[in-house]
Specification:
Layout (H helix, E strand, L loop, with lengths): L6 E9 L2 E10 L4 E7 L7 H12 L2 E11 L1 H4 L5 H18 L7 H6 L15 H45 L2 H20 L8 H14 L3 H19 L5 H21 L3 H21 L4
Parallel strand pairs: 3-4
Antiparallel strand pairs: 1-2, 2-4
Helix pairs in contact: 1-5, 5-8, 5-10, 8-9, 9-10
């Protein structure tokens, strides 16, 4: 079963006073193009997270975010009282020493001084918190993979429909293919009869007509196209990671359809070829989104 490269996943968990959230989304890409945005506390684990994502997703343009939301009371930056006291004491001493007037609004002045509203504690990532954060990341990735599988199932149904349409269209060429042989023969004979006093070798003419008709024969193209259609179906059943291979098969299908078109010298056959090209183009557009 194939998977789409398009997907989205999001998961959250609460750890003490924090809400840890992971969000991941992916689009189609020729290879894995991964970008991450992590809360500063989790940056030391970036390589672990990248390895986890790379193993699970393999291909796609992937964006992964992991952030923290704290309770309002915890999110408020506290005033550093010891720094305020130090600034106040130094400013009073300078005012007395140099005769500088004290500020009219002490609070306004002190709150503008460096580091007054800076947290003094350094937060370290504990193993307990990392287990929770990693679980959140894994849950978001699983959700994205499930999304990809659902999208892949829908893509596979679409591909099956288009493959069936191409096979039906190719089969519909057969009646015109059989009738055109006699039409070609008759057209050549009529052309010769319209040329007065021309003698020709009937055996040589027959040989030339056989050669000409064989050059327009599309039996091999039909057989190869049927093989490509079957191979495309088999490849879809092989599992995910077959997107590039399906793209190559679609290219081969296009070659056989184009050759059939170049050999088609009847309007009805050429119209059918145009319809097959339209069905194949829709496959090519969607196969770019297959992982």
């Amino acid at each position: 079963m194939i998977q789409s490269m398009t997907g989205y996943g999001k998961a959250s968990a609460v750890f003490h006073d924090k809400k840890i959230t992971a969000e991941i989304k992916s689009l189609n890409s020729k290879s894995l193009d991964l970008s991450t945005r992590l809360a500063p506390l989790y940056r030391e684990k970036e390589m672990d997270l990248r390895s986890m994502i790379t193993t699970a997703l393999e291909r796609g343009k992937v964006e992964f975010n992991l952030w923290i939301e704290k309770e309002e009371t915890q999110a408020i930056v506290p005033i550093n009282a010891s720094i305020v006291e130090t600034y106040h004491r130094q400013m009073l001493a300078l005012s007395k020493e140099y005769g500088i007037p004290e500020p009219d609004d002490w609070w306004h002045t002190l709150m503008r001084m460096p580091d007054v509203l800076t947290r003094s504690e350094v937060e370290n990532l504990t193993e307990e918190e990392w287990i929770v954060a990693r679980g959140v990341a894994e849950a978001a990735i699983r959700q994205l993979v499930e999304f990809r599988i659902q999208e892949g199932t829908a893509l596979q149904r679409k591909f099956q429909e288009k493959l069936d349409n191409i096979a039906t269209l190719m089969a519909s060429i057969e009646p015109y293919e059989k009738s055109r042989t006699e039409k070609i023969r008759q057209r050549l004979l009529d052309a010769l009869q319209n040329i007065p006093e021309v003698e020709y070798d009937k055996n040589r003419l027959e040989q030339e007509m056989i050669y000409y008709i064989e050059k327009l024969d599309i039996s091999e193209e039909k057989q190869r196209l049927a093989n490509h259609l079957q191979y495309f179906r088999q490849t879809m059943e092989e599992g995910h990671g077959q997107g590039k291979k399906l793209g190559f098969i679609a290219q081969e299908m296009g070659r056989e359809i184009n050759t059939t078109g170049s050999k088609s010298n009847q309007a009805e056959m050429q119209n059918i070829v145009v319809k097959m090209k339209d069905e194949l183009e829709q496959i090519k557009e969607q196969v770019l989104n297959v992982m």
